[in-house]
Amino acid sequence: PKMAEKLEQLEQHLEQFIENTRQMGIIVSDFQPQGQPVLNQKIHAMITGMQEIDRCKSQLQDVQVPLEVFEYIDQGRNPQLYTKDCMEKSLAKNEQVKGKIDALKKFRSQLITELDKVFPEEMTKYKTAREIIKEEHT
Predict the structure, then answer these.
(1) pLDDT tens digit string along 87-116?
(2) Are 2 and 63 within 8 A, CB to CB?
(3) Cα torsion for 115, 119, 124, 129, to the nearest 10°?
(4) Cα separation of 103 and 121, whole Å?
(5) Chain-centre distance of CA 116, in angstroms?
(6) Measured at the alpha carbon of residue 114, what is the angle toward residues 112 and 118, in degrees to the nearest 5?
(7) SS3 readout for 9-34
(8) How many other C-beta atoms are found inside a 10 Å radius of the C-beta of residue 36?
(9) What string of pLDDT tens digits covers the 138 residues of the chain?
(10) Those residues with Cβ within 8 angstroms of residue 66's Cβ, 6 or more apart along the chain or in another chain
């Protein structure tokens, strides 16, 4: 099966296990002796669920999960927010770098203009050399 199917299967097993755990908590919190067979059934369902989850383990060994995702979970945050936060940080960094590039382009342009005024002959040679280099690389 494809990775997505394997992950979906694990997710289903985990959801079923969580639901069994929730139901068992309800049974135990208000335990009545006549509820023992149902409790036994839930315990067996949990054992089976753990076995199913354990079987999924071998199919998913090549999955890499960033440690930060576990930090999100430990903090009670939705792990899917990790991807959103990474995208937002990347976009912010991209804007920052773009701003630096734009500033450097403006500086270069101003520098060439000022150098042209002070060293016109040298700048003509520089511009000619730059044109030759551009032509060689295209």
Answers:
(1) 999 999 999 999 999 999 999 999 999 999
(2) no
(3) -70
(4) 27
(5) 49
(6) 110
(7) HHHHHHHHHHHHHHHHHHHHHCCCHH
(8) 11
(9) 688 888 899 999 999 999 999 999 998 998 888 989 989 999 999 999 999 999 988 888 888 889 999 999 999 999 889 999 999 999 999 999 999 999 999 999 999 999 999 999 999 999 999 888 888 877
(10) 82
Q: Take residue 3 and report the two structure tokens written for it.
A: 């990775």
Q: What is the pLDDT of residue 69?
A: 92
Tokens of 60: 């998913």
Please identify which residue in the block is written with the tokens 């730059």: 130
Q: Which two tokens stand for residue 132?
A: 């030759």
Q: Is 131 left (phi over 0), alpha (psi -120 to 50) or beta?
A: alpha
Question: Which one-letter DSSP state was computed for residue 35?
Answer: G
- Residue bearing tokens 């949990």: 46
DSSP SS3 for 76: coil
